[in-house]
Amino acid sequence: MVAQPSRSDRRELVRERAFTAAGVTAAVALVTTILLFLFELFITSRSSRAAFGWSFLWRSEWNPVTEKFGALPMIVGTLVTGFGALLISTPFALGIAIFLADYAGKRAAEPIKYLISLLGGLPSVIFGLWGLFVLVPLVSKFEVWFGKLVGSEALVASGTTGVGLLAAILLLGIMILPFSASLILESLLVVPTELKEGALALGATKWDTIQNVELPYVHKSTVGALVLSLGRALGETMAVTMVIGNGMKMPTSLFDPANTLASAIANQFLEATSPVYIASLIQLGLILFVISIIINIAARVILRRGVQQ
Amino acid sequence: MTGRKVKNGVMGGLVAASALLLIAVLAVIVWHIFISGVRYLNWDFFTKAPTPMGESGGVFNAIVGTFLITLVAAAIGTPFGMFAGIYVSEHRGQRFADIVRLCADALQGVPSIVIGIFGYTFLVARFRSYSALSASIALAFMFVPTTARVTEEVLNLVPSGLKEAAYALGARRSSVVWNVSIKTAAAGITSGLLTSMARIAGETAPLLFTAFGSRYIEWNMLRPMSALPLQIYIYASSPYPVLQQQAWSAAFVLVLLILLLQYGAKHLIARVLRVKA
């Protein structure tokens, strides 16, 4: 007589196997997604590579009429807006994080943290709407004023629009501020209290402590946080699309209309009719995808090292 | 000596000023949305589809679209995200689990327009039609990584003593996870799902080339459909002041919807923390 497994035992075994299979499937699916994106974008953009090869990356002509496509103006636009936004928002992000970690009491810090998460949760298109109808007219006024100041007729004339790189940089700066501030705050909060108290006990002022103890302690994770924010800024689509002006030429000044990789796709994809045009836009997407994956993985690695130290 | 003290005071003032600036910027943005949004709200706005001239119609089509597209995306994404999160949490410290977590992190950073263009080539071009379903699937690709990470983080908070007690009673892994971990972490996971839904409900770029937009009140997921973010983008770029005003009103409705989802999420988190304490 061999003991038969009871019915409920068998059912439990089936459930256990199904459970394991579901977990493994979902995990594998997640990893495969990245490969699927790469594969799909690579295949559908091949006619662009057949036509332009590697020179796609450094040619500066983007002309749908003659069907000559080079990504350089968009790459430049992406880098200028991304780094520009990071440059103007980082001092404020640091300030906010330090204020919340060391100056504000719990009563003040909690509502401000809530406001930060609120600002970070607003959809990109809402920032775009606000940027288009509130920020862009202000930039336009500034442009006219600045044009008169330096005596440039061209600037005064173009100032009637206000859309362009500068508007995009300012809007992006506002958009990544809550993101980088909360990431920096997270790393500031893990600085051991004994270190801070030690410095204070030696007669250091509060700022001495922040400058010489706290910031050196978190410098790695702060870099990680900034790299993550940069990744956000580089890929930000709708808000930038609405205020950057869809310029196809290489921008020569901060007031010029331009495009980022993302905004070029959003602005032009539905109008694109020829196969090479479509493939070239998908190719821009592939470049953006590869950049964002590299930046995100790099940032996570830096952040992890920062925590382990 | 005094130099240090002066510096201390100045820097303290500066960091406080940057916090104030953030509050000011937020206040200005919210104020604009509220003032410009509320002004043109009326009953028709919530109950009617756009009229051809855009003068008296509303955005009911977009409200329906946002609900349908978001809910279907969440329905598709939730099982994948939750099981991936369970997998990573249950295999903590193992190499493959680390890779899965890294992939989830990397996917969270993928620009929304890339998701949109992928949705187009992968679904729309293949089936030769714009559809709300392809938009939901595209959004699911954004929903899965966030859900996976949140599920994992919440599950990691479940006290190991609880799980060990269940194992000691002879329970299998599946029933420990289902009956102990998930039950303990239910509020946290739900809160994570709501936060992720709030995020995808506001996405525009993934919908541009998938849902495409429609002027009609559409319930069929296999046809083009509008959504609030899409409508805001289209109206904002239009030259007609009437439509631009509707863009502000639609923005107000969208922000309200997102705040509601986030409030729900926060409320649930507060409950979890109370249980823990």
What does it look like?
The complex is a heterodimer of chains A (309) and B (277). Chain A has a single domain, classed as MetI-like fold. In chain A, a hairpin with a 4-residue loop joins strand 1 and strand 2 (68-69). Chain A is flat and about 85 Å long. Helices cover 77% and strands 1% of the residues of chain A. The model of chain A has no long low-confidence stretch (mean pLDDT 91). Chain A has helices spanning 7-44, 46-52, 72-103, 106-121, 124-150, 153-158, 165-188, 193-201, 206-235, 238-243, 261-268, 275-308; strands spanning 62-63, 68-69. With 309 residues, chain A is an all-alpha fold. Chain A has a two-stranded antiparallel sheet with strand order 1-2. By secondary structure, chain B is mainly alpha-helical. Chain B has one domain: MetI-like (MetI-like fold, Orthogonal Bundle). In chain B, 78% of the residues lie in helices and 0% in strands. Chain B has 11 helices and no strands. Chain B has helices spanning 2-39, 43-47, 60-90, 95-108, 112-127, 132-156, 160-168, 173-201, 205-208, 228-236, 241-276. The longest helix of chain B is centred in the first third of the chain and has 38 residues, at 2-39. In chain B, 49% of the residues are buried. At the A-B interface, helix 1, helix 3, helix 4, helix 5 and helix 7 of A face helix 1, helix 3, helix 4, helix 5 and helix 6 of B.
